[in-house]
């Protein structure tokens, strides 16, 4: 397995700093783009306080199966410049599309076998890429099949249900505060706005609230789909797996994993948002990594005709490390 620093130049010239992990042996290799969740996440899915550490075990498992992996620092995170609060939801989607094309254009990557793995927000962008770019395979980890606003409201109710009884008694006033936040975000016109005294990524929120993943799911016509959500996910509704399978024209393979949480760790006890700190001490669930890696390996070996536009000019740059 070989790691190489790789820079993808976004549409606006922003240099997205990332890592390309290649398997041993000569190419061209099948390859996968890894997309993380929301916030200022680096290429491994980490922030200063929350460390998902998803990329390394997944890249290792895929390399063992002969598949390369590209992951990159989001805007304003890691070595990528910018302000993450000023980046919109659609900016993140365009960055993902550019990175996918850059990966397919590499000389030792087979442009006939390029896939996407997305977690949380990354799963939403993976749906868009599957509909618009037609990659060879797509994996959706903890995604949803509904509008962003409906997903946010479901998440708020789900998290509240796991909080102590005295807090649950405040459901109505807390709901009123949430409605106030959503109303002020919708009325905002700037990339970043102050809401209840705190700066928020207002444009990202506006675009995310308006986005409906079902519009993309019905347009996934040529890409195999694996959708995995844990039955203890507090942030997306596991029941949306059935909707994903129904909406994708060719169907989707779905797995609702027992005890798996939104953090992609298993919790055999009573799971609440307060469990997150404890769970982050554990690695990503190994059986999930194996499921994803095996599924991709089974589909990346026999890719169809080229589907990705590899004509990028000088949009990417690469250097060894």
Structural topology:
Elements: E1 2-9, E2 15-22, E3 29-35, H1 55-64, E4 68-72, H2 89-105, E5 109-119, H3 121-132, E6 138-141, H4 148-161, H5 165-168, H6 171-187, E7 193-195, E8 198-200, H7 202-210, H8 213-217, E9 225-230, H9 240-247, E10 253-257, H10 276-279, H11 286-300, E11 316-319
Parallel strand pairs: 3-4, 3-5, 5-6, 6-9, 9-10
Antiparallel strand pairs: 1-2, 1-11, 2-4, 7-8
Helix pairs in contact: 1-11, 2-3
Tell me what the structure shows:
The chain is of the alpha/beta class and 321 residues long. It has helices spanning 55-64, 89-105, 121-132, 148-161, 165-168, 171-187, 202-210, 213-217, 240-247, 276-279, 286-300, and strands at 2-9, 15-22, 29-35, 68-72, 109-119, 138-141, 193-195, 198-200, 225-230, 253-257, 316-319. The strands form two sheets. It has a nine-stranded mixed sheet with strand order 10-9-6-5-3-4-2-1-11, with helices on both faces. The protein has a two-stranded antiparallel ribbon with strand order 7-8. Helix 1 (55-64) packs across helix 11 (286-300). The radius of gyration is 19 Å and the shape is globular.
């Amino acid at each position: 397995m070989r790691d190489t620093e790789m820079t993808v130049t976004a549409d606006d010239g922003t240099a997205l700093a990332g890592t390309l992990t290649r398997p041993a042996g000569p190419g061209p290799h099948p390859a996968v783009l890894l997309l993380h969740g929301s916030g200022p996440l680096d290429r491994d899915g980490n922030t200063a306080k929350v460390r998902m550490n998803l990329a390394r075990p997944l890249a290792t498992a895929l390399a063992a199966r002969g598949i390369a992996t590209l992951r990159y620092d989001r805007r304003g995170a890691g070595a990528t410049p910018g302000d993450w609060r000023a980046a919109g939801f659609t900016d993140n989607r365009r960055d993902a599309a550019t990175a996918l094309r850059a990966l397919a254009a590499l000389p030792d990557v087979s442009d006939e076998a390029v896939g996407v793995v997305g977690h949380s927000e990354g799963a939403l962008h993976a749906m868009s890429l599957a509909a618009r770019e037609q990659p060879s395979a797509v994996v959706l980890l903890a995604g949803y099949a509904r509008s962003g606003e409906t997903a946010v409201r479901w998440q708020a109710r789900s998290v509240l249900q796991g909080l102590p009884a005295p807090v649950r008694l405040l459901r109505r006033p807390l709901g009123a505060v949430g409605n106030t936040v959503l109303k002020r975000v919708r009325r905002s016109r700037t990339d970043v706005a102050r809401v209840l005294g705190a700066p928020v990524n207002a444009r990202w929120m506006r675009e995310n609230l308006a986005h409906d993943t079902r519009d993309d799911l019905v347009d996934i016509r040529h890409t195999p789909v694996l959708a995995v959500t844990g039955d203890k996910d507090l942030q997306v509704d596991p029941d949306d797996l059935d909707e994903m399978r129904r909406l994708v024209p060719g169907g989707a393979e779905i797995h609702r994993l027992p005890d798996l949480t939104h953090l992609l760790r298993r919790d055999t006890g009573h799971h609440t948002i307060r469990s997150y700190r404890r769970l982050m001490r554990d690695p990503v669930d190994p059986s999930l990594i194996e499921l994803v890696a095996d599924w991709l390996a089974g589909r990346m070996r026999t890719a169809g005709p080229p589907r990705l536009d590899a004509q990028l000019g000088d949009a990417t740059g690469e250097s060894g490390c």
